[in-house]
Write a structure and sequence with these properties.
Layout (H helix, E strand, L loop, with lengths): L12 H18 L25 H17 L4 H9 L5 H20 L2 H37 L1
Helix pairs in contact: 1-2, 1-5, 2-5
Length: about 150
C-alpha cells in the first residue's frame, strides 16, 4: 500500500482525499484481472448482498473514475453534464436545469454560507470515507478470491 507523503490533521479533508486516492491506487495494483469481479456481489460485513446492488466490477470502475476526479479536479460543468446525460440533453432540459439552478442560487444566497460550507464539507468527508472503505473491501474480496483460486 502506498504511504501518504504529507501529513495533515486526521479529520482534514485533504487527509481523507489522500487516503482515498492511496487506497484506490492500491486496489488498482492488487486487482490484476478486473473481469474476475464481474457478477460477484459485495456483502456488507458478513451479511447477504441486497438484490440489485452493483457487482464488484462496477464498484471497481466507479471507484477508479472518482479517484481521477479527486486527483485531477472536476470536469467543466458542460462536459460533466454531457457525460452524465450521454450527450443527449435536449434544449428544454437545459433551460429547465438553468432555471432550477438559478432558483437554487437565489435560495443559497439567502442561507448562511458558513452553514452551507459545513454541510457540504461533512457530506464530502462522509462520502469519501465510505468510498475508501468500499475500495478496501473490493481489494480484500479480490485477494480472497485469488487465494481460493490458487
Amino acid at each position: 500500500m502506498q504511504v501518504l507523503t504529507q501529513r495533515y490533521p486526521k479529520n482534514c479533508l485533504l487527509t481523507v482525499m489522500d487516503r482515498y486516492s492511496a487506497v484506490v491506487r492500491n486496489m488498482e495494483q492488487v486487482v490484476m484481472i478486473p473481469s474476475l469481479l464481474q457478477d460477484v456481489q459485495l456483502s456488507a460485513h458478513g451479511l447477504q448482498a441486497q438484490p440489485g446492488t452493483p457487482d464488484l466490477y462496477n464498484c471497481f470502475t466507479m471507484l477508479k473514475a472518482i479517484r481521477v476526479d479527486v486527483d485531477h479536479g472536476l470536469l467543466p460543468r458542460e462536459e460533466w453534464q454531457a457525460k452524465v446525460a450521454g450527450g443527449k440533453a435536449s434544449k428544454a432540459e437545459d433551460e429547465a436545469a438553468e432555471t432550477e439552478e438559478a432558483e437554487e442560487e437565489r435560495v443559497a444566497g439567502q442561507l448562511d454560507l458558513e452553514a452551507q460550507f459545513h454541510l457540504h464539507f461533512s457530506s464530502l468527508h462522509h462520502v469519501l470515507t465510505h468510498l475508501t472503505l468500499k475500495a478496501e473491501e473490493v481489494t480484500r474480496k479480490y485477494q480472497e478470491m485469488m487465494g481460493e483460486a490458487m
